[in-house]
Amino acid sequence: MPESPEVQVLADVLDDAVSHRRIIGVDVGEFRSWKTRDRPVEGLVGATITGVTRFGKHLDIDTDRGDLVVTLGRAGWVRHRVEDDDDAAHDAAEPTSPAAAVIATVELDDDTALEFTDAGEWLSLALSLVDHPQDVPAVKKLGPDPLSPTYTRADFDRITVGRRKQLKALLQEQESISGIGNAYSDEILHRAKIAPTTHAAALDEAEREVLFEAIRDELAEAVRARRSIPLPRLKQAKAESMRVHGRTGEACPVCGGKVADVPGSKGSAQYCPTCQGPAD
Fold first, then answer.
1. Which of 86, 110, 140 marks a domain boundary?
2. How many domains does the chain have?
């Protein structure tokens, strides 16, 4: 699943590549992905793209006729197709699978196109044409973004102090803190040396500060690292950077202990019992 560091890099690359381009054609091959039936896809034809930004794990393609909000879901992505260009570094190929299905295509006036893809077993990518990004319910409910320079310790304390919820689940709760998914929640808790099953309410002042800094540092470092990676290799680069996520049975690079599955996760989440303590 794309998370905020990868989506931020994608947004930045597309912003540079397609801003000020005019849309000359739109084709939605999988109509289930088009969520705003009262706004036909044809309404985008003739529109000019004015910028590309990110909201949590969602992509916003802003035009002079509204915002095309892309909910990437589990396996969605957007790539910039450039005809007769063999340089993969210029093409935002999906960080999932070369067999990803093209769900929709937006043709641009410079003979390039945006292709919206999904590589999952079921459709998770969604497209919404709205007046404002917050008109999309999933965007409207987003909590503060820890990659934003305005994100503060007070924002973090509001979602942790007194919360009887396990930290692993809380970090992925988009209404509380936006942009973090399964992989980075594992990495953040490993950096903070806190067990994933710890309840937020159990943290003392010092532990909250450590976790707050771990969130900011983990995500910011990931964005910086991904900027130097060609977009078609983002998935591989993300997987290779993980210290514990997806590394069951391997040695922890920090302490040398064995990485284990988080209890109850069925192998989808990992932690280091030596660094982080036991997870009950």
1. 140
2. 2
Distances 245 to 136, 186, 210 between C-alpha atoms, Å: 31, 6, 20
* C-alpha to C-alpha distance for 240 and 234, rounded to whole angstroms: 10
Per-residue confidence in pLDDT tens, the chain, 280 aa: 899 999 999 999 999 999 999 999 999 999 999 999 999 999 999 999 999 999 999 999 999 999 999 999 999 999 999 976 544 434 444 444 457 899 999 999 999 999 999 998 999 999 999 999 999 999 999 999 999 999 999 999 999 999 999 999 999 999 999 999 999 999 999 999 999 999 999 999 999 999 999 999 999 999 999 998 888 888 889 999 999 999 999 999 999 999 999 999 999 999 999 999 999 8
CATH number at residue 71: 3.20.190.10
Domain membership flag for residue 272: no
Q: Does residue 170 share a domain with residue 109?
A: no
Residue with tokens 């043709």: 107
For residues 279 and 45, give the distance between their C-alpha atoms in angstroms, rounded to a whole number. Answer: 53
- Residues 119, 193 within the same domain: no
